[in-house]
Amino acid sequence: MQLSSRTRAAGFTLLEVLVAVGIFALFSAMAYGSLLRILDTRDRLEAERDFWRTVSLSLMQVEDDLAQARPRTVRGTDGLVRPAFRGQPVDSRALGEPSLEFTRGGQVVLGDGARSDMQRVGYQLREGTLSRLVWPALDQPVVSEPRVAPLLEHVEELRVRFYAQPGGWVNSWPATTQTGIALPNNALPAAVELTLKLEGRGEIVRVFQVKG
Question: Does a cis peptide bond (omega within 30 degrees of 0) precede residue 174?
Fold first, then answer.
């Protein structure tokens, strides 16, 4: 009988077991909640990092294109000569003109044939997405649609300005000098100012040199 009493005294009562289980469940819930917050923070940080990496790569693409701009005019689908460099305020209509459209060089040409290293590129904001446009040929046939490559999403606004020498900053290109003389079709701006208003992140302003 004495051994049996000591055995009962060494065990746990049902109430003690329930209290222990409750404490364990409480700490487990707290630990799980902390883990979820850590994972959520990590996911948001990774998403933010990926977004800014995309912004950086997009701006590098714009910089590379403008650095390779060429004073080469082209013919549009209507047969009329289009300036080597065209720029205007954003036109968000489905068939609106790109905010930037110009001829660039420096493309890698494969094969032995005599081919130009130039192509016609452009940038357009439509439905919150900044896209890069590439036309299949410099002088465009009657039906010619550019290849559209989305670069950056969540863009609320795109503004462009062009630096003319002399004349300063203007909002469209080709520009007119201060004396009222229109610049030739093959004229290039000295620089382009690009302003992007990003959803929930403010504005980014970059000035790119047009080296020509």
Answer: yes
Dist CA 71 CA 105 (whole Å): 10
User: From CA 197, how far away is CA 204, in angstroms rounded?
Assistant: 6
User: Phi and psi at residue 16, in whole multiples of 5°?
Assistant: -65, -40
Interval 179-188: pLDDT, tens: 566 778 899 9
**Radius of gyration (C-alpha) of the chain in whole angstroms:** 31
> Whole-angstrom Cα distance, residue 1 to residue 5?
6
Helix residue spans in the chain (DSSP H): 2-10, 14-67
Residue 70 CB neighbours (<10 A): 21
* pTM over 0.85, yes/no: no
Distance between CA atoms of residues 206 and 195, nearest Å:
7
Tokens 């660039």 found at: 104
Query: Per residue in 51-102, pLDDT tens?
Result: 999 999 999 999 999 999 999 999 887 888 999 999 998 876 656 789 999 9
182-209: average pLDDT: 92
| Burial grade of 2 (CB within 10 A; 0-12, 13-18, 19 or more) | exposed
Q: Are 163 and 192 in contact (CB under 8 A)?
A: yes
C-alpha 158/C-alpha 151 separation (Å) is 13
